[in-house]
Design goal:
Elements lengths: L4 H25 L13 H8 L1 H5 L6 E6 L5 H13 L5 E5 L5 H10 L6 E5 L4 H4 L13 H6 L2 H4 L12 E13 H7 L7 H12 L4 E5 L6 H4 L1 H9 L4 H7 L9 H18 L14 H9 L3 E7 L3 H7 L4 E4 L12 E9 L6 H14 L2 H9 L3 E2 L11 H8 L6 E3 L8 H9 L3 H5 L4 H18 L1
Parallel strand pairs: 1-2, 1-3, 5-6, 8-10
Antiparallel strand pairs: 3-8, 4-6, 4-7, 4-8, 4-9
Length: 457
């Protein structure tokens, strides 16, 4: 099975955008000499210095950031402080929301003609704004040198069919498995590569009243759902995981993709029924805080989570943490998982003053100084071509996965629609494990949501 047409268009868009960046950069050199910013330098500073007179003629509006789901990340705060140091007249406001209302809050404001300066959202779901014309095309508005330094895999979901740049990634996470390396060493466990190897580890630990794993089953079951991606591509055909996520592949019972997903659900159900999933029988709605606590207190040996939680776990654990990609059903299957960039975009109906402010903020955030702040917080920056200082060894391991080819933007079906997002995050495993749906009913509901999303387009 080949990748879907949208994926091919995305790939062409990436190549087109990078080719345009290369051409622009080459033209800037003129005499053939290199004018690129040295590794570790801040291209936003060079861009600002070159356009000082132009910047003096610009007027700036209020910086309103919508999509922040709690206290702003340190990198956002640092970026705001740097922006206000350069432009003290700029006021700043955050429009708070939670994950369940985030998309609607931003869309409502844009539709009402009162757009934020910056929308802050998930990279593989920002297409829901682009598809209805809500994103300003940033191509030509942001320094081409900055764009050329953005990690290609993170930029890919932000490109339109004609090479538009409708958002820019700031940092990224992917779903992974963190494990208690100290505990594994004490028991003599190796990192598991297959489901059987993981089951054997869980069984040994259960004899000592230790749960095999924890995960946020209340709102982030897609952290565990990633075990389907490699299975789909290996057993049905390359690109199937993307096709399922894109809504172009049926998942009904009896279909090839549906039966692969069934096998993954059955394996998780077996772990649950054996008592390996914290906190055991009946505990299907576990919050992120409770899942983290179970792991940090040594009650669960592994946790299926997003990579950006590394710093939180490190600060709460008194043992060494390791990481591995999810095991597969059999040896030889490549584990695949979803890369999920956090992106900023400027609404298409933003005022000129808002656009000026938004562009200035984006160039600051993508500069070396603020990207170092992201690394300092234990997260993966979008400007991976920069040279960073004091990188935690485990974070280096996390960041190295970006070059492994095992992380793919857009393979999470949460991108299909908001309804699918809620289903995958809250029901895909919980429903069959709790008995509220059979596996057949789970697949049928997933298919219904897939078809409804297609009809809505």
């Amino acid at each position: 099975l080949c990748r879907s047409i949208p994926m091919l268009r995305k790939t062409i868009s990436v190549l087109l955008a990078l080719a345009m960046v290369s051409a622009l950069t080459a033209c800037a050199g003129g005499d053939g000499s290199s004018e690129s910013t040295p590794a570790g330098a801040d291209p936003s500073s060079a861009a600002s210095a070159g356009g000082a007179s132009e910047a003096e003629d610009k007027t700036y509006g209020k910086l309103t950031i919508s999509g922040v789901t709690g206290d702003p990340d340190a990198f956002i705060v640092a970026g705001v402080e740097k922006l206000q140091a350069e432009h003290p007249e700029i006021e700043v406001e955050y429009i708070p929301c939670d994950n369940s209302t985030r998309e609607q809050v931003i869309k409502t404001a844009i539709s009402a003609g009162d757009p934020p300066t910056i929308g802050y959202y998930w990279g593989t779901r920002v297409n829901s704004f682009y598809d209805i014309g809500m994103n300003l095309d940033l191509k030509g508005k942001i320094s081409e040198e900055i764009v050329s330094n953005v990690n290609e895999g993170m930029l890919e979901p932000c490109l339109g069919e004609n090479g538009e740049i409708y958002a820019l990634p700031m940092k990224t996470v992917y779903h992974t498995t963190f494990y208690n390396k100290t505990m594994f060493d004490e028991y003599g466990f190796e990192e598991p590569e297959t489901w059987d190897e993981m089951t054997a580890i869980f069984e040994t630990l259960k004899a000592d009243d230790i749960f095999g794993f924890s995960t946020n089953s209340a709102t982030m079951q897609d952290c565990l759902y990633g075990m389907t991606y490699g299975e789909l591509d290996a057993k049905v055909g390359e690109g199937t995981a993307y096709g399922v996520a894109d809504g172009t592949v049926s998942v009904l019972p009896g279909t090839e993709a549906g039966e692969v997903i069934r096998g993954c659900i059955e394996q998780v159900q077996a772990w649950y029924e054996a008592g390996y999933w914290y906190p055991g029988d009946g505990g299907i709605n576990v919050t992120q805080d409770d899942a983290n606590a179970a792991f940090s207190q040594g009650r669960a040996a592994c946790t299926f989570i997003y990579s950006g939680a590394l710093e939180v776990l490190k600060n709460s654990c008194d043992f060494e943490i390791g990481t591995f990609m999810k095991p597969t059903s059999e040896a030889g299957i490549t584990s695949i998982d979803n890369i999920e960039p956090d992106v900023f975009f400027i609404p298409s109906n933003a005022s000129e003053e808002q656009i000026n402010t938004g562009l200035a903020f984006l160039e600051i955030i993508l500069g070396h100084e603020i990207q170092q702040t992201i690394v300092d917080s234990g997260q993966t920056p979008s400007m991976t071509s920069y040279t960073f200082e004091n990188v935690d060894p485990l974070l280096e391991e996390v960041m190295a996965e970006l070059d492994s080819g095992r992380l793919q933007a857009g393979v999470n079906p949460c991108r299909t629609s908001s309804e699918m997002q809620n289903f995958i995050k809250q029901q895909i495993f919980a429903a069959p494990c709790s008995g509220t749906m059979t596996i057949d009913q789970t697949l049928e509901e997933m298919e219904r949501i897939r078809l409804a999303a297609g009809e809505a387009q």
